[in-house]
Amino acid sequence: MTGIPASSLCLPLRAENGRVLGVLNINRYRKIRNCTEKEMALLQQASDTLTLAVENVRLHRKNRARIDELARLNRDLDESNRRLGETQLQLLHAEKMVSIGHLAAELAHEINNPLGCSVPRRTARAVHAVQEMMVDPSEST
Fold it and tell me: Which domain holds residue 99?
């Protein structure tokens, strides 16, 4: 209907924390009379139901935004873990190369400056240490 309402009733849509989310406005265009207690109770129930619906939509949007943020953080974490794994492999390779370099230097030193019977024992320990380091960690699991 159009025109000026004969009466109007406004009920606030209040969240549990007291914040007003909106207003339920009911207009009557016919006879002017007061609402009965039964009608007021029904309107209050409608107001409460609308309040819950509005609050649920707000919470759903908030949760959806949080889920999206967590998914993004999870992707970032996966990428960081991948890069960390690559870096660990590079460090392991570098450590192996350093050990081989040390072994080569020790062997060259022993060849140039023999010490006698202690050479084979020291060289054997160095070769064993390098062999242990050369084992791929993924093979040992």
Answer: 7-134
